[in-house]
């Protein structure tokens, strides 16, 4: 099937898109409003050692130009007590994947249309020898409030957008506790908040407790965000480019703090970044995304010492090393990511790949298991059929 490679849309096409979008948005919004009992959004974990299992997740945006396939059948696990790094160029669907876990995709345009997000909760007990889990995709948002902000929390790139400028840091930290532990007294909340500020390495916690967000530096604000994210003892912290806005020294301090707290508190982190250097410092496991799909995943050691997908290999080459001569230009992968509205039927990396073989003209390559932990979606690693 040949697909048009132009952004021009006629009035007729534009009307058809609009009609289609309205129909689709109405349909998915009505699904969210339907009455559901706990059984409708209860499932079992494949492996009770995972906090989250994402399976076949598809999240789309119905836009005036057509349907954007932002997350296009993504599957990966987040094990307990591990840091899972999600890496890929800007626009590959990292943030939309994390927003899907939090049910924060901008509706009605943005909708999760397929897949499962299993969350390992202790609320539901067991089904035989399987741990019962919530399926976040099917869960009513009113129920999700029980886990969002408590069991699963988020740290964003720019803390000023998540901190409210008109309230003190103390007010905002205490508020997190009041929401999830209504029986707590204001004195207990304050003591706990100050304790959290100390834990994230803030030298004068009492003073910062009384400060307003604008009175703090970028690094301090990010520490406050980490304190907020940790306050309810979460099982999973989603950190979306948490240090991109900070300078290099502060970035290293914040990452070190995150890693230290992850270990001492025993939680998992889904660490989103476009920077492989950050992943190398932090992650136990790595998920590499390209144009809305996972193209390779494995342990950090597998991805760094034995990268397989030509895109992962390209990403590694584009990572600056301290040892690289400063006058050497950075390698960048030539070519462009395909338009997420008009994706090809073949491997999405084909137009940029320098290792294509005959099979690459065929359909999109399936995930191939290379080891128990290492998977890649590329024809180069397909075993010959017997
Ligand atoms: N609110 C939105 N409306 C339309 N398209 C969106 C929206 N948010 C994200 N997208 C699209 O979804 C794709 C994935 O975006 P995102 O997850 O933010 O990428 P990143 O990997 O940089 O975090 C991009 O093509 C982006 O343009
Ligand atoms: S499947 Fe083919 S085109 Fe795609 S990355 Fe592998 S070798 Fe390149
Ligand atoms: Mg993003």
Distance between the termini: 30 Å
Q: What is the mean predicted local confidence, pLDDT? A: 92
What is the rounded Rg?
A: 22 Å
The strands making up the biggest β-sheet line up spatially as 8-9-10-4-11-12-14-13
Order of helices and strands: HEEEEHEEEHEHHHHHEHEHEEHHEE
% residues in beta strands: 15-25%
Low-confidence stretches: none
Q: Total strand count, please?
A: 14
Produce a short descriptive summary.
This protein has helices at 11-33, 94-101, 141-144, 159-162, 169-180, 186-199, 205-210, 218-230, 248-265, 276-282, 300-305, 310-317, and strands at residues 42-44, 50-63, 66-79, 83-87, 110-120, 126-127, 130-135, 152-155, 236-240, 268-273, 285-290, 293-299, 368-369, 375-376. The protein is an alpha/beta fold and 386 residues long.
Task: Explain what you see.
This protein is an alpha/beta fold and 386 residues long. Helix content is 32%, strand content 23%. Strand 13 and strand 14 form a beta hairpin. Helix 5 (169-180) packs across helix 6 (186-199), helix 6 (186-199) crosses helix 8 (218-230) and helix 8 packs parallel to helix 9 (248-265). The longest helix has 23 residues, at 11-33. The radius of gyration is 22 Å and the shape is globular. The protein starts with 10 loop residues before the first helix and ends in a 10-residue tail after the last strand. The mean pLDDT is 92. The structure holds adenosine-5'-diphosphate, iron/sulfur cluster and magnesium ion (MG). Residues 94-95, 240 line the site of magnesium ion (MG).
């Amino acid at each position: 099937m040949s697909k048009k490679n132009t952004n021009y849309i006629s009035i007729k096409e534009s009307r058809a898109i609009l009609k289609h979008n309205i129909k689709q948005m109405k349909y998915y919004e009505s699904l969210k409003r339907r009455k559901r009992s706990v059984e409708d959004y209860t499932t079992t974990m494949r492996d009770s050692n995972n906090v989250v299992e994402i399976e076949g997740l598809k999240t789309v945006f119905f836009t005036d130009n057509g349907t954007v396939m932002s997350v296009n059948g993504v599957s990966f696990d987040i094990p307990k007590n591990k840091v899972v790094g999600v890496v890929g160029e800007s626009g590959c669907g990292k943030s939309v994947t994390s927003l899907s876990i939090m049910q924060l995709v901008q509706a009605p345009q943005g909708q999760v249309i397929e897949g499962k997000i299993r969350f390992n909760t202790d609320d539901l007990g067991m089904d035989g020898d399987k741990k019962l889990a919530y399926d976040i995709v099917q869960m009513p948002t009113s129920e999700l409030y029980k886990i969002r902000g408590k069991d699963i929390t988020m740290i964003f790139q720019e803390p000023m957008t998540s901190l409210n400028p008109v309230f003190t840091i103390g007010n905002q930290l205490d508020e997190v506790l009041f929401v999830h532990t209504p029986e707590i007294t204001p004195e207990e909340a304050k003591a706990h908040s100050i304790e959290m500020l100390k834990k994230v390495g803030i030298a004068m916690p009492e003073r910062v407790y009384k400060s307003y967000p604008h009175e703090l530096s970028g690094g301090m604000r990010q520490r406050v965000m980490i304190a907020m994210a940790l306050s309810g003892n979460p099982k999973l912290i989603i950190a979306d480019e948490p240090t991109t806005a900070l300078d290099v020294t502060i970035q290293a301090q914040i990452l070190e703090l995150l890693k230290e707290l992850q270990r001492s508190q025993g939680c998992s982190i889904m660490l989103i970044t476009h920077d492989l250097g950050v992943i190398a410092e932090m992650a136990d496991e790595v998920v590499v995304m390209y144009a809305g799909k996972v193209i390779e995943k494995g342990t950090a050691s597998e991805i760094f010492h034995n990268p397989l997908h030509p895109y992962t290999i390209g990403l590694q080459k584009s990572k600056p090393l301290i040892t690289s001569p400063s006058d050497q230009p950075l390698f960048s992968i030539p070519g462009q990511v395909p338009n997420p509205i008009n994706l090809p039927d073949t491997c999405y990396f084909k137009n940029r790949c320098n290792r294509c073989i005959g099979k690459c003209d065929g359909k999109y390559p399936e995930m191939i298991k290379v080891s128990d932990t290492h998977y890649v979606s590329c024809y180069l690693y397909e075993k010959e059929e017997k």
